[in-house]
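Weekly modeling sync, notes
Attendees: S.R. (lead), two postdocs, one rotation student

Agenda item 3: backlog of single-chain predictions. S.R. asked that every request posted to the team notebook include the full sequence so nobody has to chase files. The rotation student volunteered to paste the first one in as an example of the format we agreed on. Action items at the bottom.

Example entry:
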Amino acid sequence: MPELADTIDPARWTCPAPLRDQPVVVMGHGGGGALSAELMEQVFAPAYGNATLAALTDSAVLQLGGARLAFSTDSYVVRPLFFPGGSLGDLAVNGTVNDLAMSGARPAYLSAAFVLEEGVELTVVERIARAMGAAAETAGVTIATGDTKVVESGHGDGVYVTTAGVGLVPDGVDIRPQRARPGDAVIVSGPIGLHGVAIMSVREGLEFGVEIASDTAPLADLVAAMLSVTPDIHVLRDPTRGGLAASLNEIARASGTGVRLNERVIPVPDAVANACGFLGLDPLYVANEGRLVAFVPGSAADEVLAAMRAHPQGAGATLIGECVAEHPGMVVVSTGLGGTRVVDLPLGEQLPRIC
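Predicted structure, as returned to the notebook:
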């Protein structure tokens, strides 16, 4: 009878998750999790080699002509192009506006570059462009320049959009993940998981009893309201790809601190909880497009929370945990059953192409 070792061939094993040493790009590299981080750290950061990029923040803060500028760029490849609560056009504006706002900047100007696939209907392009114009007006920014390219049929997926933006950072504001400190209150601006579930419901033709709409929205005015209470906000992040879990892990690792959450108070809408339960997903890993998570000195938490709740985009703001000295670089959740679980950085994205 052959030995067990003789019958097992590891070369034939397969795994549904992408392997960490993949020699080619896989979908997980675009998911905002560990694979995305490795792509940045092992490929792009060494190639570009500068301290500004090495900070790995949502937007770079630059000194230029005596002013402090925030500068950010992002590409949008969401599928489908239109979904409950928004569209590719809304995301392309709000996403970049929010990346600028996460450094405390007041967004001012955007660029917009379109990659169009041959054969896409011009009415679709016009609808996206009009959505971008409306979103820019709501956010108080100007789309000042742009570009258009067309690729052959079969070499794209309808429409891709890249936006870049600039804004001014007020004096005295220093918001970055390295500034998280033990004792900080961790606040989320509203219910989580809506965007990812909205995209999934349309893409997969799923019905959950009620329509779930994306939360896509500009957050610069909300951030301004928070800064009016105190300029000493330590960290802001918009938890998009990889959800709240990815953002909190990135902050914990950048600052060398731990994060402790209270599962019972994290605002997960019933519809999102039911959808995630049905699909076997964790709401903490589901993408958002109109939410922020803030690390605020504990002494200012109540005032900041009140200012957030007085703003339409922060009406559901909730204190969900704290920054701690224990378990540096880790995020843990106190569960409703009295236990504790680790919330790790996701490998990739539970649902790709959500933005």
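Discussion: group reviewed the output briefly. The chain is about 30% helix and 25% strand.
Action items: rotation student to repeat for the remaining queue; S.R. to check formatting next week.
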